[in-house]
Amino acid sequence: MAEVITGGCLCGGVRYEIRGAFLRASCCHCSRCRRHSGSAFGVQGRVLREQFRLLHGTDLLRTYRPGDGAVKVFCTLCGSSLFGGSWPDGPELTVRLGSVDSDPGIRPQFHTFTGSKAVWHEILDDLPQYEEIYKP
Predict the structure, then answer these.
(1) What percent of the chain is predicted at pLDDT more than 70?
(2) CA distances (Å), 67 to each of 20, 30, 42, 64, 71, in order?
(3) What's the DSSP call for residue 33?
(4) For the domain bounded by 4-22+41-109, which CATH number is listed?
(5) Which tens digits make up the pLDDT trace of 77-96?
(6) Would the CA dihedral through 105, 64, 62, 35 be positive or negative?
């Protein structure tokens, strides 16, 4: 049986599960992730779409779709940033690791969009850095 990772929003209105391991995890410094998270960067893990299942709260989700970037999905009640990427129909999606209930079994492996990082933030770890998008 595959490992089940659960998560959800701050108010508990949205809950999800992931069956299996994350493909990779990263810290994204793009201006959209910074603004969406309200922090220096967003931390997310990528999973295959078929690994992800929304348990409840579909009616609480709002999706922001910029014309030229990954979508951002959040809870309309509490504002929690939950997932994105190519939600809902793409082959993979990103899950905000801060919304996971316990150990996600992965740690950030690199930084992306460091060319647009917050001017007040200094990256202090030794993870690989990509000025633009990471392409495996």
Answers:
(1) 98
(2) 31, 15, 20, 10, 9
(3) H
(4) 2.170.150.70
(5) 999 999 988 888 889 999 99
(6) positive
